[in-house]
């Protein structure tokens, strides 16, 4: 009985393994996932999935932010934030903390977790090779930047050498000044610049819903135009908007599909990649 | 529940997929398997497994005989055999039938079955590029040959070009005369000459047993030296001897492992290759 | 005196040797040539020419049928043919015989003859890698097929690996069913698919004639449009039509020249390839 | 007059440029150099030299520590150090600060400075690809590690892709735990692992002296054995010992020469590399 | 003081070294330069510059004539010239002398001078591989030819193999007859055919002047259209016209810049190539 | 009848064509051959053979001297030679003539003759890339040199680029001074340095004889040790000694065979290379 199921899983999985071999898959891993008590196990499972993807020839790129960890460190240093137009202002002192925490705390933690399965992970920040080139959004917000251009050479070089890049989402402007940027947006832009096969957002929800109050209305597969309607009719709202916008942008920019998965499910990346059923919500262009 | 099992199968399988990518696996497929009524389904499942192996980068080589089909054709042509020392004599007329049936009937049937899944199979006989060079065993037996040398260039060239060679076990001597040879022995010799990772014999038994009358005594894993003891104590006997001898010879010649599997189990090749438990009996060298 | 002639032959031959190095030449070898008493010598001379062509870097491809041998085997098996619209019907039983004889008898005989001069020949049938993909001509004729598409990958791969492919003209449809096809037509289609330099038909006539009754009217060189006129005026008729049509089709499809040679002349292939005078009839496009 | 000098400089420099093209040069850049007021200019000049070296085909690798910056951050966070055997204990909290400051503050500052001249610098820490694998020195000192092994693959890959790696000297043990390590020692070990042509220490002294009190006794060129004598006789002592030991170790490990230069001299790297006179102190093996 | 100047020279030179690495630079070296007493030193300095250019990856091609040396040999052989339309007639006897002197005297002298710095120079004449294909200018002038076509294959092959070609400007027509040609024109045509970065004429003047009588009116940089005006207004005249015309032609044909330098200045090639100030007169297209 | 002979020539020649493809054959062409009245035809036939050899993939290298042409020019210039120990002294003036005639007259004549069949010939002298490095034999003889070392890089590079090098046998010492050398010896040394398949001397005799007075005693094939006996017994003497010594030296140095052919026979090179009978005298090592 179990042998039959095992054989079915394999028969289903092998063609996907071939299809995705050599393809780039960008995975956005949230800072939240690292912050809680039980998260170390979640990080370990995530790290194992990334290494298994790498094992069968997929080229994974991990992109991360680190909001909770930044807040902790600001608190420790007694730095209080001011706000402008409802958004937190990133002054020089805050920016230094953001950069230290993302590059010097969160990034090495993810890299080390992956490397316990085989020394393939390499941390990169948007400063390296000026990978994420930004301009300031507006003066009032301080060092908050919007991406002008992704230079994919460092990441591409690491992928070609067989490494798994782990990208800390710090931007840099033409003068070498560092900037705070939105990690979801950065992940989408990186996927587009790399010509990725997939961009996958690991979240703490099961996926998108057609009816926000009905768990049974999970959207398994949708298109860019349907998504835009869901936004305009208010079905999708709030914190999901930047993620969903990044999905739309990435798919329009040539990424084959975008995914919103529940990072709390063990091995959800493998389930999405290697089964017919997949996991969470898959977003493709209108024609495909 | 099912998702957990699926994830487990994948986590287990992916490292094997990596390990075997680019490796050559020789599969001996018996003429019996093609002869019965329900065999067309068995052939279809076998063909699917071969293509799936190929899909994930394994280099499969199929080797076949065709005893039952030869007997049928000899009967149709009213050719009766004589015997010498208890073995059937292969005279010129019989040899012509053997060659016609193996190269012109069994081989194309297997090739066509595989090609319904994607035109990768190419039939080869031992005559092509003098792949299987033989000498006559003795005059009394007529055109019965023993392999002197396997020239792997044709098979290797086809593998390098991405094809699945399907080898008909006809031998040829220095003068270009065709010979009848033992297919099990040929399969082992080919595996050795190719530096194969595995030689797999698909049979109609579950595997080798430690006690021939006790189904529960199936040997999952054994070594060359244990096998020799089982032969010397008579546990292994009769028709299994040539197969087991070929396994021993191949492993001694550098093939990493030899396998005796039950070809009646659906997708038994995938189960053997991609699960920790494997299937049937696995034979390795004494040290590993 | 002889030295002067030898030098002249060499001075004439060397530029042709250079011109044809690396070029593909398809040679249609008839089943008739194998059927007679003295043919073993003819086969040996033919095999020597093929190996000498290969020696100086030409890429020969041999294509064969086997009508007489098929008839012999049908007779032995007491299979009588029915006819439809004046053409022999190929039922399943007949088809099996056709395939057995071409793949299992004629093909290995040619391969072995070539390999006595150096193990370079490899038998291929239209089934391998679905090289010759066909559709049924019409229901009444049974398994008689017309070529839809030549997939040249197997033959090309063997050529690139330094082998001489010997093609048995069995076709296969999308479902893997084998079909009987015209060998002359197949040879032309293969030459076209390979982008061959030449297609050469070895026959038992000296070449085409302008006046069918006048041996002195041999056509040494002609063009596609002149040939069409000769057909429309009835000068060329009967059994020569399929061969000549295949020549026209191949030249139109990009083959530089088609040749009808007398296979009974010793080393006629070398004389055609490496002398200014050539041999038999040469057909080119209208402009060249 | 000036034209003559210019020509002399070029005639002298061009052969060095050829000799060092394609060679790896490791430059240890001290944290002190970044700490002072006027250092931004020093950093800018240093960054220009690194880019000019890169321009003519040298493969520079920058290695840095960051003692003063770590002390500042520990002070801001009110973390006080305990001591064991006269050495500062690195507890988990301290280690986190060390890592944040080196990876998240000092490293990006150097990377950004170089990138203002052309986006070639890429920050790497010893954690990435487990580049610097360490074991704890002893329990009492906490997370203070000694290098077991340098895995040069990440740095080598970046060099091969045309980037300038900037290495933050954090070590990591087999379990993924980060460690504090001596930056001078790390620089030497990296040079050895890369088979570097040169290891250059930028310091705030003019070079080594034969008589510590006599500025005119500057050693322009010395050997490993002479250096050992200078240590044993106490001429070299104190804070210079780890640097000098790293030089000796690197030269013994195959690095062609080690250099101690005065980082306060503008373009001292170019003067050392491309003039006959060189700069500071050069240390070679005894035979060369 | 000197260190500061040295550093300035290096900072200025390194980017040029990178820019010109791998680029072809054609240098026209005059026969006059070899004829005088003190010329051996000039030749030695010139040879050193060529080798230094080669050292840093530039691909220099030297083109030479040899008027004075030809006149000497004609005198020794008592051959007197006749004239037609004011130009010297090159009869068969004179042509033989021209060829002997250029290929057998001047060319080996330059090759040997370069090879004392490292065996990289290889003499080539326009006859080799029919590099300079010409047609006769008119019957009256005898063997005076104009270039129809430069076949760059021999020179390109030598450059690709790391050699420095030294081209003797003998032309050859379709029948293999040798011709006397203008060396300045040949140098320009070769630069154009090679897609050279620069064509440099070494002369015995400081450069072009805006006012022929005013040494201070040296033109450091000019364009093709300004030059044409200077010719049409008579500022440039006489013997400079062929050189200047060759410059114009070469720049129009794709050479980035043409230069007229004073070959009497030591290391003038290095000063031109590797300093911002350059030397002599530089001619570029109108847009750049 | 003629067709049969033609086929025989081809059957015999094709395996040689294959065997020699890609192999280097050095041909020593004498200055005498160019000096006489009817020589232009001889040169044309020789040039055709060289191009035909090149056509079928052989890599010919032509080596020449030019004694008669040098004597003519010395006479024209009224330069009389002095003698020391019975040998002509090469003073500076004579050396200049030798170099001018070989590089500037004989070499271009051969190059142009070959190039009328397809621009493949490139003249090279021993000065180029210091191909033939020599030292003076003794002071009394002036600029007469013996070869120390052949640097094959220029010739090898030209062969790899598909050219036919034509080598003028001028030597050069470490200081760049040109020297007169024996052309037969130079040809043998070049063959050895190139690892040539054959060294062929074109002479005006039919080959070596066992009895100098008996034309029927021509030696078709001999070995190094037999040759040494023939020299020691005085059968071979006089002007043939340097040629025969060069043959012995070359064969000992790894050249497969040396040949002494009668250059007056039309296409003698083709007869030697591509027939079983060969031409002239063939010298091999003792074992082969």
Automatic annotation (TrEMBL), chains A, B, C, D, E, F:
<keyword id="KW-0418">Kinase</keyword>
<dbReference type="Pfam" id="PF00696">
    <property type="entry name" value="AA_kinase"/>
</dbReference>
<comment type="pathway">
    <text>Amino-acid biosynthesis; L-arginine biosynthesis; N(2)-acetyl-L-ornithine from L-glutamate: step 2/4.</text>
</comment>
<dbReference type="InterPro" id="IPR004662">
    <property type="entry name" value="AcgluKinase_fam"/>
</dbReference>
<dbReference type="InterPro" id="IPR001048">
    <property type="entry name" value="Asp/Glu/Uridylate_kinase"/>
</dbReference>
<dbReference type="InterPro" id="IPR041727">
    <property type="entry name" value="NAGK-C"/>
</dbReference>
<keyword id="KW-0067">ATP-binding</keyword>
<protein>
    <recommendedName>
        <fullName>acetylglutamate kinase</fullName>
        <ecNumber>2.7.2.8</ecNumber>
    </recommendedName>
</protein>
<dbReference type="GO" id="GO:0006526">
    <property type="term" value="P:L-arginine biosynthetic process"/>
</dbReference>
<feature type="domain" description="Aspartate/glutamate/uridylate kinase">
    <location>
        <begin position="24"/>
        <end position="262"/>
    </location>
</feature>
<dbReference type="GO" id="GO:0005524">
    <property type="term" value="F:ATP binding"/>
</dbReference>
<keyword id="KW-0547">Nucleotide-binding</keyword>
<keyword id="KW-0055">Arginine biosynthesis</keyword>
<dbReference type="GO" id="GO:0005737">
    <property type="term" value="C:cytoplasm"/>
</dbReference>
<dbReference type="InterPro" id="IPR036393">
    <property type="entry name" value="AceGlu_kinase-like_sf"/>
</dbReference>
<keyword id="KW-0028">Amino-acid biosynthesis</keyword>
<dbReference type="GO" id="GO:0003991">
    <property type="term" value="F:acetylglutamate kinase activity"/>
</dbReference>
<dbReference type="InterPro" id="IPR001057">
    <property type="entry name" value="Glu/AcGlu_kinase"/>
</dbReference>
<dbReference type="InterPro" id="IPR037528">
    <property type="entry name" value="ArgB"/>
</dbReference>
<keyword id="KW-0808">Transferase</keyword>
């Amino acid at each position: 009985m179990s042998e039959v199921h095992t054989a079915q899983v394999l028969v289903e999985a092998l063609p996907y393994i071939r299809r995705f071999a050599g393809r780039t898959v960008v995975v956005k891993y949230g800072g939240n996932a690292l912050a809680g008590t039980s998260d170390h196990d979640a990080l370990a499972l995530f790290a194992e999935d990334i290494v298994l993807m790498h094992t069968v020839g997929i080229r994974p790129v991990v992109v991360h932010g680190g909001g909770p960890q930044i807040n902790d460190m600001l608190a420790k240093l007694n730095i209080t934030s001011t706000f402008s137009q409802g958004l937190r202002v990133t002054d020089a002192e805050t920016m230094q903390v953001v950069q230290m925490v993302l590059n010097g705390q969160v990034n090495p933690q993810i890299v080390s977790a992956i490397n316990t399965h085989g020394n393939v992970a390499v941390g990169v920040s948007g400063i390296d090779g000026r990978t994420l080139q930004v301009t300031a959004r507006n003066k009032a917000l301080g060092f908050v930047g919007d991406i002008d251009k992704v230079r994919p050479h460092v990441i591409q070089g690491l992928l070609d050498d067989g490494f798994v890049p782990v990208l800390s989402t710090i931007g840099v402007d033409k003068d070498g000044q560092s900037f705070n940027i939105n990690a979801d947006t950065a992940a989408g832009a990186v996927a587009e610049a790399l010509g990725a096969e997939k961009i996958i957002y690991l979240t703490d929800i099961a996926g998108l819903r057609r009816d926000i109050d009905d768990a049974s209305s999970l959207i398994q597969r949708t298109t860019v135009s349907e998504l835009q309607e869901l936004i305009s009719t208010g079905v999708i709202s709030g914190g999901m908007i930047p993620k969903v916008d990044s999905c739309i942008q990435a798919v329009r920019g040539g990424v084959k599909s975008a995914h919103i998965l529940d990072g709390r499910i063990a091995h959800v990346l493998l389930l999405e990649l290697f089964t017919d059923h997949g996991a969470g919500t898959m977003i493709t262009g209108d024609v495909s």
